[in-house]
Amino acid sequence: MEAIKSRLIHRVAINANKTFKAVHSSKILPPIGVSVRGDIIGIPNPISNLRPITFHIPPDETYVERKFRLKKEQVHNWHEEFWKHHNIRFMLERKEYVESMKEKKADFGPLTPEEISVFYKAFLDKYWMTHMWYNIEWYKHNLNLLALALKVELDRFRRKLFSHE
């Protein structure tokens, strides 16, 4: 049963990714002739619900700024992968739950909020350790980004301070 579920999750992920890539590009481009001085944010991915971001690369980007931008891209991609896999699991398990509940019910109407809340609680309980790990890793990434942002600002301040001499 686990092998079948694993293959099904893999198949759904591949098909969803193909659909997403057909509609979205990995790099969002501005309209032709438009100059952009900031990040470009696209429409949400239908699976992860996160918006793709094309981070602006300034022409005079320093080593520290480049390191910061690349780290932001890495963290964004990490979020994307986590939520894509999480949401696929959620959708599949919710579908299985709804189908099993419909088999048990005499009337074939939609599930009540109370019935579906049983699934939500069970799902959260099942994956609480995964969510805890995600939050801990997210805090680590954010602290790392904060440190890099501080370095970027200090570097800019230093350049500004000494550029007048």
Automatic annotation (TrEMBL):
Any transmembrane segments, and where?
none
**Mind telling me what this protein is named?**
Uncharacterized protein
**What are the record's GO terms for cellular component?**
mitochondrial inner membrane
Establish whether keyword Endoplasmic reticulum is in the entry.
no
Family stated for the protein in its record: Belongs to the COA8 family.
Q: Which UniProt keywords apply?
A: Membrane, Mitochondrion, Mitochondrion inner membrane, Transit peptide
Q: How does it sit in the membrane?
A: Peripheral membrane protein
Q: Which InterPro entries match?
A: COA8 (IPR018796)
Tell me if Transmembrane helix is a UniProt keyword of this record: no
What biological-process GO terms show up in the record? intrinsic apoptotic signaling pathway
The cellular location(s) given in this protein's UniProt record come to:
Mitochondrion inner membrane
